[in-house]
Amino acid sequence: MRRLKSLLIPGVDKTLLVRDAAKLLPEPSRRRFIAGGASLGALTLLTGCDVSDSFSAESMLTQISKFNDAVQAKIFNPNVLAPTYTERDIKRPFPFNAFYSEDEAPDIDGEAWKLEVSGLVDNKKSWTLAELHQLPEVKQITRHICVEGWSAIGSWSGTPLRDFLKLIGADTSAKWVHFRCAEDYASSLDMPTALHPQTQMTFKFDDKILPRAYGYPMKIRVPTKLGFKNPKYVVAMDVTNDYKGGYWEDQGYNDFSGS
Amino acid sequence: MSSITVSDDKAITGKAIQPAWVRLLHWINAAAVIMMILSGWQIYNASPLFGFTFSRSITLGGWLGGALQWHFAAMWLLMVNGAIYLALGLATGRFRNKLLPITPSGVLADTRAALTGRLSHADLTTYNYVQRLLYAGIIAVGIVIVLSGLSIWKPVQLQYLTALFGGYDVARYVHFAAMAAICGFLVIHVALSLLVPKALRAMIIGR
């Protein structure tokens, strides 16, 4: 009870406070916030009317999923490392998984490929694969956990994303790093996860240049997230404060999906 | 007049077989458990552990994404409600008074009596030994299913908990086995409550 009282600031108009807070929200989430409030309000006011018009289980579940994003962001400890394993734990062949079959996977010409960099960064130059291969390489053997439930241990090598973000002068106080991929896949990482020491721009699987199936020429390996938050065939990186969603996130998979 | 009402209320609450908090938490738990099981079956179907899947007609969520939303919404209801139940069960002495002691000889005698139709249900305020064992057991299974679920949800942040279950992959089997145990309990629990309707009535209106 004392805790509840301390949340109320004496002398502050609650209506104005909410209006100010709403202004701080980006436009789409502000609309969602207001829409959510309106439908819940409508439920209490319109008793006797068709409730399903103003209130649906789906919108409630979406709201709870957003709440779960916030809870997971709080649980996320940037100093906790994903467990690492040994060479003999590696799953060979490592499973291929995507929303398309393996022979439909993008077949990218590494010579012509470039990584586009945009958004809140000092240096927006595009990077060739040869340039990226010269960055310091770190290898880690971690467990990939799919949203479907299965898991497999793999070995990924590349450069820590946080070092690259430093190199390009990214504004690390921004909220998101959004990735766009060759096959119109996309996913966004919250900045604390992007800065996690194990989050990696990956160029090799099992000590060999990434094969086509595992995301040639570049994948983002995030051992603190479910597999669908590990985009393959990445072509563009955008540091941004605007939430741009992703292929699965837009269809209802929980956005944070942290392990 | 008002004093009579008050004493009547007192008499009613004094006689209640199941106190109001038990009834409230029981039915919230029932709803949460059903949502968790039905959405869990749909999640299981995305990557089955055994050679079968659950018919989509009896699952909740429609597809993996929808089922995950149900599962991760109902988990709050299950966990918060369950935590209140455990706290009140310990604080009020209900667990100690109703579920203890559980003796092997008592369980054997009451099982034999139940199977031969000689188990008395005259006094609903006291649980027989079979009930005590099943109710204490299902509370333990409830704790295991929540902890194994957390270790599947957060195998990095809660990696020591996940390790306690033998790692991520084993925790999935533990989570499934606990679900199967709850389903088995539900079959017996629902069947017996229908056989002894006054026990069901006590869980609804208290008497």
Automatic annotation (TrEMBL), chain A:
Which residues fall in a coiled-coil region?
Answer: none
Matching SUPFAM superfamilies: Oxidoreductase molybdopterin-binding domain
Oxidoreductase molybdopterin-binding domain sequence ranges: 105-248
Q: Which Pfam families match?
A: Oxidored_molyb
Q: Which InterPro entries match?
A: OxRdtase_Mopterin-bd_dom, OxRdtase_Mopterin-bd_sf
Protein name per Swiss-Prot or TrEMBL:
DMSO/TMAO reductase YedYZ molybdopterin-dependent catalytic subunit
- Species of origin reads Rhodopseudomonas rhenobacensis
Automatic annotation (TrEMBL), chain B:
Q: Which Gene Ontology MF annotations are present?
A: electron transfer activity; heme binding; iron ion binding
A single Gene Ontology biological process assigned to it is: respiratory electron transport chain
Location(s), subcellular: Cell membrane
GO CC annotations, alphabetized:
plasma membrane
User: Residues in domain Cytochrome b561 bacterial/Ni-hydrogenase?
Assistant: 18-204
Which InterPro entries does the record match to this protein? Cyt_b561_bac/Ni-Hgenase, Di-haem_cyt_TM, Hydrogenase_cytochrome, Ni-dep_Hydgase_cyt-B
Entry keywords, A to Z:
Cell membrane, Electron transport, Heme, Iron, Membrane, Metal-binding, Transmembrane, Transmembrane helix, Transport
Q: Which domain of life is it from?
A: Bacteria
Q: Per the record's keyword annotation, is Electron transport included, yes or no?
A: yes
- In what way does this protein cross or attach to the membrane? Multi-pass membrane protein
Please classify the protein's predominant subcellular localization into one broad category: membrane
For this protein, the parts annotated as crossing the membrane are 24-44, 70-91, 133-153, 173-197
Pfam families found in the cross-reference section: Ni_hydr_CYTB
**Is DNA-binding a UniProt keyword of this protein?**
no
The text of the family note is: Belongs to the HupC/HyaC/HydC family.
Read off the PANTHER family from this record: CYTOCHROME YDHU-RELATED, NI/FE-HYDROGENASE 1 B-TYPE CYTOCHROME SUBUNIT
What's the protein name?
Thiosulfate reductase cytochrome b subunit
This chain's source organism reads Rhodopseudomonas rhenobacensis
